[in-house]
User: Which sequence fits this backbone?
């Protein structure tokens, strides 16, 4: 007898935060996660950052080649080193995984498959790879995933290259891979506008999270 499909949850709050400095927003994600209760509403934060390199918990600094004037921040997600900058859409799901009936792999898959579906809408054949999280066209990467799970809840998330300056990626071994080629959605034939991409991506992400609805706001994170 087949297992019945899980009932859809009702809603999530989505915040469009615009351009935000990296470290203060990371600290806001930590505070939100640490102060959660059983009744805390799940949220998705969309944002972009000024130029910054971030190093994961166990990242090796040998992957920093020539960072120059771009700051480096050691943070608490998984993964190696990556770059964030203007024109890159950041998707931060702050989700109680147990309440939604999701495992960590389910959340990674939801993020990746949302971008694969988005790309398909532009006629771009993208795929996820089981050996290296993120989304690729052939061997070229345009979305990266790095998460932290604390107290059963997620933060950090996905970086989607929409239309960015690629030069900073030459200053690092992206995601710890020497010579990994990065690209962006605009170069692949998709939109170059972050707002347009966000609006097209959100329904895919909600569907893969088995969510029915979103309360979209441009207000600041709760408690800030």
Assistant:
């Amino acid at each position: 007898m087949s297992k019945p499909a899980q009932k859809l949850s009702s809603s999530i709050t989505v915040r469009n935060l615009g351009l935000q400095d990296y470290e203060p927003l990371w600290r806001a994600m930590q505070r939100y996660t640490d102060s959660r209760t059983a009744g805390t509403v799940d949220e998705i934060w969309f944002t972009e950052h000024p130029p910054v390199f971030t190093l994961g918990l166990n990242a090796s600094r040998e992957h920093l080649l020539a960072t120059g004037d771009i700051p480096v921040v050691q943070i608490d997600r998984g993964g190696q080193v990556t770059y964030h900058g203007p024109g890159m859409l950041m998707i931060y799901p702050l989700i109680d995984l147990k309440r939604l009936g999701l495992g960590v792999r389910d959340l990674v898959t939801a993020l990746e498959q949302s971008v694969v579906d988005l790309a398909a809408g532009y006629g771009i054949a993208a795929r996820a790879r089981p050996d290296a999280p993120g989304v690729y066209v052939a061997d070229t990467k345009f979305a990266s995933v790095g998460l932290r799970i604390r107290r059963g809840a997620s933060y950090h998330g996905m970086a989607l290259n929409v239309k960015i300056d690629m030069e900073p990626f030459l200053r690092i071994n992206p995601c710890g891979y020497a010579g990994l080629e990065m690209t962006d959605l605009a170069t692949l034939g998709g939109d170059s506008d972050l707002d347009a991409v966000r609006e097209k991506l959100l329904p895919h992400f909600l569907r893969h999270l088995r969510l029915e609805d979103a309360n979209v706001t441009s207000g600041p994170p709760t408690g800030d």
In short: The chain has one domain: 9-217.
